[in-house]
Amino acid sequence: MSRNLGSPGAAPPPPAVRAATPGWRDPRLWIGVAIVAASVVGGARLLAAADDTVSVWGVATDMGAGDLVTEDDLVAHRVRFADDAQLDRYFTSDDALPADLELLRGVGEGELLPRGAVGPAEQTDTLQVPISVSAERVPASVGAGSVVDVFIVARSTDPQAPGPGGPGEPALQAVTVVAAPGLDDTFGASGERQLDLAVPERDAQAFFELLNSFDSPVLTVVRRG
């Protein structure tokens, strides 16, 4: 049985449809542009919110009361504060530091520098306190700028003596060595070494009172950091 391919009743094939580039009036184009723009703006806002940190000064190494603070002693840290009032307690890296800024208390390495921990040198009550220590009771690495604790390792003549200096308690804590002459420059013959310490006046008075409560006080210096 034969088939008539040219019969007049056969339907003609549909015309080919070619893809056309949408014109600028096509609403689909503007919807796409709006989506892209919204993504860019939203991403920018998200990045801005994620980088709301502030550059704040922190100390590069352990520092003690009486130390003069300069920018050479500081390192910038980026910190995010939940409350602007907290930021006011510290120095930002944009702040100009006074030339005679002095620490009123010890600040540890990496700690942010609080405004309340410093003051003008002429307004501080720091004294330079000399001590003599047997050479074997002070680390050889101790020098000017070192932050140390001072222990008294001797029994007091007064069992009721108050204050620090007992077992495990430093008589002076986190104080800065202002000067540390070498053994040959001080008491080389006796084997003792002199250290000049920056000590707040109140702590210096308590230290001397405690020292006087011992018959033969023996000092040991421990370096921090």
Account of the 3D structure:
With about 220 residues, this protein is an alpha+beta fold. It has two domains: about 70 residues, Type Iii Antifreeze Protein Isoform Hplc 12, CATH 3.90.1210; about 100 residues, no CATH class. It has three helices and nine strands. A five-stranded antiparallel beta sheet has the order 5-8-7-6-9, covered by helices on one side. A two-stranded antiparallel ribbon has the order 1-2. It has a two-stranded antiparallel sheet with strand order 3-4. It is elongated and about 125 Å long. About 20% of the residues are buried. The mean pLDDT is about 75.
Chart the SSEs and their pairings.
Layout: H1 27-50, E1 54-59, E2 74-79, H2 84-87, E3 101-103, E4 118-120, E5 126-134, E6 147-152, E7 172-179, E8 192-200, H3 201-211, E9 219-223
Antiparallel strand pairs: 1-2, 3-4, 5-8, 6-7, 6-9, 7-8
Short description:
The protein is of the alpha+beta class and 225 residues long. The protein has 3 helices and 9 strands. The protein folds into 2 domains: 54-122, Type Iii Antifreeze Protein Isoform Hplc 12, CATH 3.90.1210; 125-223, no CATH class.
**How many domains would you count in the coordinates?**
2
Secondary structure: helix percent? 10-25%
Contiguous helical run count: 3
Radius of gyration: 37 Å
Order of helices and strands: HEEHEEEEEEHE
Overall pLDDT level: 77
Give unreliable regions as ranges: none
Number of strands: 9
> Ends: how far apart?
106 Å
Largest sheet: 5 strands, antiparallel
| Shape category | elongated
The helix-and-strand class reads alpha+beta
Question: Strand percentage, roughly?
Answer: 15-25%
Reading side by side through the largest sheet, how are the strands ordered?
5-8-7-6-9
